[in-house]
Amino acid sequence: MAIQLLSVNVGQPDLIGYYRGKPVASAIGKKPVTAEWIELGRTNLQGDRQADLTVHGGPDKAVYVYPIEHIREWSAELDEPLGPAAFGENLTVEGVLEQDVCIGDVWAWGDARLQVSQPRQPCYKLATYRGRATLPKHLVAKVRTGWYMRVLQTARVPVAGPLELLERHPAGMTVLAVHRARLFGEGAPEVLEAMVALQPLTASWREEIAGVLARRHAA
Q: How far apart are CA 104 and CA 189, in angstroms?
């Protein structure tokens, strides 16, 4: 796969609007980095933070990746000019989509190493930020989620250029398949069981897919 890094984006928590009458703080309003290099740590890029660490960030969701192909589609469908960082992603990339990327894949970003850990499940903060109440629902339905990555090896990394797929995980469970399993209940029982046992997949997603299996058995 030819993966191109188009933009690296970071942000700090800020007020992005109101939800049910209450103020909403989030770091989803990220901006492209203008320097040539940036430090990548275990849980954050330099200058990047999360407002609510109970559901965002952490070692398993250190870096959020979103394809520019999706941003272009949204721009046409929403009739709104959109570019890098439009969906709060850290890395805006070109050349790969959810059906091309597998949980557990390892990427090289300069001297750093990252591993695909889970799809994104958007919340109301995306709707608040973009001012479109139904956007998270449509993002899930169209499976334009992007994916999170954990950092296996920290480094000072370039803000543009190629990314390399170093290791394809042998299980071959794509981000698309895992998304459909958890959110749509799709997949043969043996496939779902393999997902539950897939260690690179975050614990919360493995637990949710185990719940899908349990509901099937109980039906």
A: 21
